[in-house]
Design a protein that fits this description.
Mean pLDDT: 80
Radius of gyration: 15 Å
Distance between the termini: 22 Å
Strand content: 25-35%
Strand order of the largest sheet: 1-4
Number of strands: 8
Oligomer: single chain
């Protein structure tokens, strides 16, 4: 089975959600789990300015990382992740990495502070205007 044929465990269709993000200055975190391909609509403005269909944070001028917590909609084996920087030409992250944990039920972001993460996709260099796919060696099981 090719990666495109596998179910998107984080999809809203299955109950996936972005339960927390440390910054949503320009565009909402929920855009991380939108099933539709990104589209650029120039001169489309909302209450935060230009409307984007990706997750966009303010430019970071200090050390640190932009982070989000995505709850998967169903249990499964994670065989890869996708980071899509379509239309992000000068404001894409220089690097990306993905960590996961197995949590039962619907813990709050505060309850996840004691989680024991494992690496799903080690840090890699992000490329602008690209759909980057990273595989996870052997797959990583989730509990949903």
């Amino acid at each position: 089975m090719t990666p495109g044929q596998l179910p998107d465990l984080a999809s809203r269709r299955f109950g996936g959600a972005v339960v927390w993000a440390n910054d949503e200055f320009f565009a909402e975190r929920e855009n991380l789990v939108t099933a539709a391909d990104p589209v650029f609509r120039p001169y489309t403005f909302g209450h935060k300015g230009q409307v984007y269909d990706g997750w966009e944070t303010r430019r970071r001028r200090t050390d640190g990382n932009d982070q989000a917590i995505v709850r998967l909609g169903m249990p499964g084996v994670i065989s890869g992740v996708v980071v899509d920087t379509a239309f992000f030409t000068g404001n894409y992250p220089p690097f990306a990495s993905i960590e996961g944990c197995a949590a039962v039920g619907y813990p709050t972001p505060e309850e996840l502070t004691e989680w024991k993460p494992w690496s799903l996709a080690r840090r890699w260099r992000a490329i602008p205007v690209t759909r980057s796919r990273s595989t996870t060696p052997g797959g990583s099981p989730t509990s949903g």
